[in-house]
């Protein structure tokens, strides 16, 4: 249960519900025991075995409490029977039993009522914190992790933790107290019989603990496999066109079936192990009851040291122990499963982001002079993608980065936006190292349009509003006009309120890209980064998007990563990259006149 300490900060805000649950469970355990004890006087009335007490007993302190309560009940029964008859006494006993069972079940409900707020509150806060963590971790983290595994942790694993919270409270409060009160009552009735019962309890506990020993490991396997098939599902939905286009449905079906078959086998092993707890504990309980019947029966029939009513009440109390003991064995399984799930949840929550803001990070609100990449080297894994790279982008100028795939162009966009940190060298804005700035203020200065138009399953308006949350409809329409998107948006049935489907798939590639540009236009940042924004478009769409980009880049600092060289001929400076280094740089005409790498790239594209 160590993970409860680790999750304590999630539990603390709801501790009042935990306290109320504990109080309710104390009363539940108390009334459960009293309800069983109350059977004794009722049976004594039925069989006339009750001791006749004609004088009202006097309370003589806690030491004589048992005798006082017993004599007081017998006094009530005796006086009622003499005045109204035995049937009236029986009625009173029945009313007492009903009242005690009512109170028992009322407090049981209240206990469950209060714990619901604690469990669901912890579930909500855990999910919120994991989601916040997921969005704050660097992009590099997700190049190693399966998305489906993250989804499994935020859904299934967190739910498992929630369920185990109730199990823990049952383990440490409700069921143990029920057993404790029952044992106290049993000792009160017969010390000798209770010691006999306790000979069987360690044996039962040992057998049950052996069954549950490997549960955490089995539960962990189930949860990991759930992450694998959810990842397969997520990848399938994302790549459905490719799967269908290459007739790969059977391959992916087999991959998914292999995972669900493993999940099936792991789940069967886990659930069957869990299911073994209840019948095992019940059988061991019945063996204990059978032994009780034999030993206790001889005390009633042979030794005459126990009354029939006391023995039946004692048997009821003994059975009263069985139910919570069974619940404890089940709960211990849930705790082990919750422990495995919590480890997976805490693994995400405890992951440190290498891109965390420094404690004294500055907030930068304006861009005044230049962006500088000073002797920058960077690698994603083993091989350097950039080597001793130097570049200065002056305010108001547009710099285009060109070169073959793998030359490091997009890496520069990733580094300037601080999706990754440089391994060596520095990137500065107005002379300030971007590592010393808050990521939020740095990215407020930047606008990003990527090759993949990343849109969300929402309206055009809400997609564009990511650029500026409080923008008016007029501002949104102006941004769409600059991006050459208003011409098709105005013809949609609901205009800017039209839903664009999952990933914007109700729109064409060119339309999606222009919505992305409108989003960047609305943000109106001083620095714009365009990462191959037109490379995936047809000629007509490219012309419209290029016009939109030129509208947006006017009088703005821009870093343009380009595949199609026709789109960057007007750039103030063109940087030609090869294997992470600058091969040559200059204006379009200067590079053509040099008759070197850039001219060859232009000539190659002119034949495409």
TrEMBL record:
* Localisation per UniProt entry: Cell membrane
- Write one Gene Ontology MF term: ATP binding
Organism encoding this protein = Winogradskyella vincentii
Coiled coil start-end: none
ABC transporter domain mapped to chain residues: 371-604
Question: What Gene3D superfamilies does the entry give?
Answer: ABC transporter type 1, transmembrane domain, P-loop containing nucleotide triphosphate hydrolases
ABC transmembrane type-1 domain mapped to chain residues: 19-337
The regions listed as transmembrane in this protein's record are 26-47, 90-115, 179-208
- Cite the SMART domains for this sequence: AAA
Classify the protein's membrane topology as the record does.
Multi-pass membrane protein
Q: What PROSITE patterns does the annotation carry?
A: ABC_TM1F, ABC_TRANSPORTER_1, ABC_TRANSPORTER_2
CDD domains recorded: ABC_6TM_MsbA_like
Q: Which domain of life is it from?
A: Bacteria
Per UniProt, which keywords does this protein have? ATP-binding, Membrane, Nucleotide-binding, Transmembrane, Transmembrane helix
* Entry protein name: ABC transporter ATP-binding protein/permease
Q: What is its main location?
A: membrane
